[in-house]
Design goal:
The protein is of the alpha+beta class. It is 34% helix and 20% strand. Helix 2 packs parallel to helix 5.
């Protein structure tokens, strides 16, 4: 082969290697320096592999994320944490707080936002856009949804300007709200979108607090559970579908997790891959925070946290607690053919079925409730334990006492019918009902009512006669006088 051909081949190989290096390098945010190149975290060589068959065995070394936390959503109790108080960059997970504030302050049925040139220009070239254009008018509800689902940074800027007039003033509002929600001094925001800034930082614990508050808003929860959003037509754009990058919500993705209910992704070179998630199973709601993980690691980390949490937290209702050890009462006057000899198991039925009294807590807490159910409930009986009994008939009322949800009442009902024994004496209730229904003010004549007092009277007369006869006999018998003997000498 000619020398020139070798030279051309060598030059081509060098150029190819250069292109391969450039295209394989991580994307940098605007203004990022060489040390800001994202370096994907790896699991420790000494880490025990996570076993999906035993999700209850979770160790911090099994997570790619540098910082993470898992909480129970209803109470905020921490279930698992890893460096949860370390100061981290939140990237686009910042938009959770932005959307939360907008939903609290805005009117989704009325407010419309006109996108400013400044809101668009503030987005660095490498950051995600919805996109929307300057002068475009968008309904607030659609702008919030697009900002969350598509992670549009100009949408977050437009929201900030609409409510506070400027990015800086809205950032001040964000910090005030974060403090009101209970975030620590380790959280500080400088912008509504999560654009990289050295003074824009938080912790996994504080982001869990913010996410928990946001998920209590039904509009927010509805939006973040989606990976797509149908954006209506505006004055500048036709209707379109926005597609997010939340693989864990995508049924077509290898990372899909059916119990996941959102919430928000984030990425910058310095923040790494982040995800704040929510999941529900069997009445249990969890919120996870994963900061500075790898591209795929944020999904596997989230799954590990959720699976662990569902093994640690249980949910149960007062009905289920009662059903584990139901009341059994003894019924009097039952038919002699009754197979259970008058024993009646009582079922339970909520007086107010619309009220949610689900108890959520760690396994030890639920077990304690099982053991002490009689101490956290009381029963008032409303019916005599006597046959006949009809199935579904209310026998009493159970009142359940909960620390967090107050009290609730339940009817204790017969689970079967019990026939009365033939010729059984009437019950007190039957006698009272019979008497109340009788128009005659005087008791009706009944041989059953005469016999007992007649027997008593007869016995009394016999006793009286015996005593009288005995006294007469003593009177008729004179006292015997012993004659005195004279003594003769």
């Amino acid at each position: 082969m000619p020398v020139q051909a070798y030279q051309r081949l060598a030059a081509f190989a060098a150029a190819f290697c250069l292109l391969l290096f450039l295209f394989s390098s991580p994307v940098l945010s605007e203004g990022a320096e060489e040390e800001d190149v994202f370096v994907a975290p790896r699991l420790s060589e000494n880490a025990i592999p996570w076993d999906q068959r035993h999700p209850e065995l979770l160790d911090a070394d099994m997570l790619y994320a540098k910082s993470a936390i898992l909480i129970e959503a209803d109470t905020g109790d921490v279930i698992f944490e890893k460096n949860a108080d370390d100061i981290m960059y939140p990237a686009s997970t910042t938009k959770i707080l932005t959307a939360y504030i907008a939903l609290q302050m805005g009117d989704l049925n009325y407010d419309e936002v006109e996108i400013s040139q400044n809101a668009v220009d503030l987005v660095p070239p490498t950051y995600t856009r919805i996109p929307v254009s300057p002068g475009e008018v968008v309904a607030l509800k659609d702008l919030i949804a697009a900002t969350l689902v598509r992670s549009g940074n100009e949408g977050a800027n437009a929201i900030a300007e609409y409510f506070s007039g400027s990015i800086e003033q809205f950032a001040g509002l964000m910090n005030e709200v974060a403090g009101m929600l209970g975030c620590s001094e380790s959280t500080h925001f400088t912008n509504p979108s999560g654009v990289q800034d050295d003074n824009h930082y938080t912790t996994a614990r504080d982001m869990a607090i913010i996410a928990r508050s946001a998920m209590q808003n039904t509009d927010f929860a509805d939006i973040v559970a989606r990976n797509t959003y149908n954006m209506p037509a505006s004055n500048k754009r036709p209707a379109r579908q926005l597609v997010g990058q939340t693989s864990i919500l995508d049924p077509e993705s290898d990372y899909f997790y059916s119990e996941c209910r959102g919430i928000k992704t984030g990425f910058t070179n310095r923040a790494g891959y982040c995800y704040i998630g929510a999941a529900q199973r069997g009445g249990i709601s969890l919120i996870s925070v994963v900061l500075y993980s790898s591209r795929a690691g944020r999904w596997s980390d989230t799954r590990k946290l959720f699976e662990y949490g569902f093994t640690q937290i249980q949910s149960i209702t007062p009905e289920a607690l009662y059903a584990e050890d139901p009341r059994v009462i003894e019924i009097a006057g039952f038919d002699l053919d009754d197979a259970q000899h008058g024993n009646l198991t009582l079922g339970i039925r909520a007086v107010d079925e619309s009220r949610d009294m689900t108890i959520i807590g760690r396994k030890a807490t639920i077990d304690s409730l099982r053991e002490n159910f009689s101490q956290i409930s009381s029963v008032t009986w409303t019916r005599e334990f006597r046959a006949p009994i009809s199935v579904g008939e209310t026998m009493g009322t159970l009142t359940f006492f909960s620390e967090n949800k107050g009290t609730a009442q339940y009817d204790l009902v017969a689970t079967r019918s019990i026939a009365a024994r033939e010729n059984a004496p009437p019950t007190l209730e039957q006698i009272e009902a019979y008497t109340m229904a009788d128009e005659n003010p005087w008791p009706r004549f009944s041989i059953d009512l005469v016999i007992p007092p007649a027997i008593i009277l007869l016995l009394f007369l016999m006793l009286f006669r015996f005593i009288l006869k005995h006294r007469r006999k003593r009177i008729r018998t004179p006292d015997l006088q012993i004659p005195q003997k004279r003594l003769f000498r």
